[in-house]
Amino acid sequence: MYNIVLFGPPGAGKGTQSEKLIEKYGLTHLSTGDLFRKHLGEGTELGVLAKKYMDEGRLVPDEVVIGMVDDKVNESKNSTQGYIFDGFPRTTAQAEALDKMLAIHGLSISGMIALEVPEDVLKARIIERGKTSNRVDDQDEQKINTRIKVYLDETLPVADFYSKQNKFSKINGVGEIDQIFASISSVIDSY
Ligand code: AMP
Fold first, then answer.
1. Which helix (H) or strand (E) holds 18?
2. Residues 169-185: tens digit of each pLDDT
3. Which domains, ranges and CATH numbers included, belong to the chain?
4. For site-directed labelling of 2, which of 64, 111, 181, 183 has its Cα 20 to 30 A away?
5. What is the rounded CA–CA span in Å between residue 86 and residue 31?
């Protein structure tokens, strides 16, 4: 059973690679961004709360995100071969909470795989995605800059958290999708 954290800034390709990983390894995809967008679309209380943060490119408060992930893990733990966490954890507090919630079920993170992509490439990719994604946060340069800054200030320390546990690997996230996928797969196969 693999429990993988796919890590990287917005636009790094986490969603694209997650789709391929789910297919290859039969993992459950747990993307907090996708879950929030689902709540938003359904107009739930959680969606309404998350919207104001998402629209500005800021992080939704930890307790809200952690509660949502905990619910998802509890409802799927008996029917999964493992998880691919995408866009979560985004703060050290979330990483600590994830370790605790997995430990309750006798599970742990196998490793974090970080996709490295230079800032100019990220911005170009997000702007391109914004033409079709319908995401407000993909369509405004200032919001994109905020998201990258939030990643550098608040999310990057999560890499140290896994590094200290000897669970951190990085991959070049620029190039052919299949090539990047092959690099990720070889890290997973080494677990
Ligand atoms: P994403 O699709 O991963 O880029 O997430 C879109 C937005 O959802 C982010 O800019 C945040 O506002 C919110 N979000 C997603 N995941 C998290 C998380 N783990 N912690 C806090 N906010 C999150």
1. helix 14-25
2. 999 999 999 999 999 99
3. 2-118+156-189 (3.40.50.300)
4. 64
5. 5
